[in-house]
Amino acid sequence: MKKMMYGLFFGDSITYGEYDGVFGGWVDILKRYALQKYNEGSNELILFNLGIGGETTEGLLKRMPHEMAARNSADGNIIFIGYGANDLAVKGGNQLVDPEQFKTNIETAVQQAKQYSNEIYLVSILPFSDKVDKIIQPTGKIRDNEDVLVYNQILTDIAFENALHYIDFYSSVVVDKEILLSADGVHPNEKGYGVMAEIAIPIIEKYL
Predict the structure, then answer these.
(1) Taking CA atoms, which of 65, 85, 106, 127 is between 20 and 30 Å from 147?
(2) What parts of the chain have a pLDDT lower than 70?
(3) Cα distance between residue 63 and residue 83, in whole Å
(4) DSSP string, 29-94
C-alpha cells in the first residue's frame, strides 16, 4: 500500500519562489517532480509551499503550530525551515532579528517541528550580490554577506546539536552568485532556483 507523506516548507520569499517567472522557484520544481514520480508508481509526497515574502523567524513562530496541525499526515511529515535573509537585515540601525534571538527562534521552531516529524531540514541562507552587499536598498534594509556566514553557522550548529539535516545551498551558489541571483541581488533567478532544486531532489527522493 502506498504511503502519503507531507512535506512542509517554511520560509521567506526564497522558499516562496519570488523572482522566478519560469519555474516558480525550487519548491515548486520539487512539487512537480514528486507528482511525476507518484504518477509513475511511487509513494505520494504532497509538498506545501509555506513561504511568505519578508517573513522573519518571529513570524514563523506565530504561525508554525497552526500550519503543522492543519497539515499532518499519518504516514509522516518532512519539515523544511529556511530563514535568515530577512532576520539579518538591518533597518533603522538595528537587525530585524539579532543572532542571539535568531538562534533562540530557530531552536524553538525545531522543538515545535519535532512534535510532528523526525525528518527536519534546516536550509542555509544564500549569499547576496556584491552590488547590494552593505548597501542600503529602496526598502530601507541593508544586508551584509559577513552576517550570512554568522547566521549560517548558527543554523549549522543547531542542526548538529539536534541531529537534524542541513541543506547547504550557500556553497553551491556563492562562486557563481552574480550569475545565479536576480537583478535585485537577493533572490535567485530561474538558474539559481534550478541549482537549488538539483540539490534538493535527491533529498525528497528518499521519501518517494
Answers:
(1) 65
(2) none
(3) 14
(4) HHHHHHHHHHHTT--EEEEEEEE-TT--HHHHHHHHHHHHHHS--TT-EEEEEE--TTTT-EETTE
User: CA 188, CA 114: separation in Å to the nearest integer?
Assistant: 30
- Residue 60: Cβ within 10 Å count: 24
Cell numbers that stand for 86 in this block? 530577512
Query: Which cell numbers hold the place of 181?
Result: 541571483
- Supply the angle between the helices 145-161 and 99-114 in degrees, to the nearest 10: 40
Q: What does DSSP assign to residue 186?
A: S
What is 105-140 written as a DSSP string?
Answer: HHHHHHHHHHTT-SEEEEEPPPPPPTTTBT---TTS
pTM recorded for the entire structure:
0.97
Burial (Cβ within 10 Å: 0-12, 13-18, ≥19) of residue 139: exposed
* Grid coordinates belonging to 129: 550580490
**pLDDT of res. 2:** 83
The C-alpha cell at 23 is 519555474
Amino acid identity of 186?
V
